Amino acid sequence: MRSEIKQQRHMKLIKLIETNPLMTDGEIAGALGVSLSTVRLDRGLLSIPELRERMRSMAEHATSKLKSMK
Q1: What pTM was computed for the model?
Q2: What is the per-residue pLDDT across 5-41, written as a single tens digit (0 to 9) for each?
Q3: Which of 1, 2, 33, 34 could form a disulfide with 38 if both were Cys (CB 3.0 to 4.6 A apart)?
């Protein structure tokens, strides 16, 4: 039973991050109704990087699409 709840929480966490990758751990914890440490543990188990790394990845992806104007 606990593993089912954990699986559901993990799925919700993945959907939240996909919807808004700039959500902080605190915002995710509030949305899921769990503690901050639970969110951090779940992110680690799911190999989801922390906010800073997600922001860096998004910035690198966005700048690779930009082309200078001549």
Answers
A1: 0.79
A2: 999 999 999 999 999 989 999 999 999 999 999 999 9
A3: 34
Question: What does the chain look like in DSSP terms, one character per residue?
Answer: -HHHHHHHHHHHHHHHHHH-TT--HHHHHHHHTS-HHHHHHHHHHTTPPPHHHHHHHHHHHHHHH-----
**Which pair of tokens denotes residue 14?**
């993945």
Q: Is the torsion defined by CA of 6, 39, 25, 45 positive or negative?
A: negative
Written as one letter, the residue type at 43 is: R
Q: What whole-number distance in Å separates Cα of residue 32 and Cα of residue 16?
A: 9
50, 43 Cβ separation under 8 angstroms:
yes
Q: Are 54 and 21 in contact (CB under 8 A)?
A: yes
